[in-house]
Amino acid sequence: MVESWKFRTPPPSSSSIRSVSPASNASVASLTPQLTWADSAAGLFYYEVQLTKDAQFRTTPETAVAAVYHNLVHGSLTSPVNP
């Protein structure tokens, strides 16, 4: 008899993430601000951080008015380290 195993992870959700610094919707004067966040979902360890000058955050090529920059960040490489 062959045993069968199933492995499922919950879908990611931004509802468990909270901004630490800068505060949510805050303006920053630095061109290189340090982003810090906390996540109560311990099972998530990769984050895609997106940045744009567009206040409406339009990412569709037909409607975008500014570039959208993104970076994939591993939780163990963040500061402070995501446990």
In short, what is this structure?
The chain is an all-beta fold and 83 residues long. It has no helices and four strands. It has a domain of 39 residues.
Explain the overall architecture:
The protein is an all-beta fold and 83 residues long. The protein has a domain at 45-83. Helix content is 0%, strand content 28%. The protein has no helices and four strands. The protein has strands at residues 17-21, 36-39, 46-52, 68-74. It is extended and about 65 Å long.
List key phrases describing it:
83 residues, mainly beta, two-stranded antiparallel ribbon, 28% strand, extended
Radius of gyration: 17 Å
**Helix/strand structural class:** mainly beta
Low-confidence stretches: none
Question: Would you tell me the overall average pLDDT?
Answer: 80
**Euclidean distance between termini CA atoms:** 39 Å
- The share of residues in helices is under 10%
Strand order of the largest sheet: 1-2
Could you describe the largest sheet, including whether it forms a barrel? Answer: 2 strands, antiparallel
- SSE sequence, one letter per element: EEEE
Number of beta strands: 4
Beta-strand content: 25-35%
- The coarse overall form would be extended
- H/I helix tally: 0
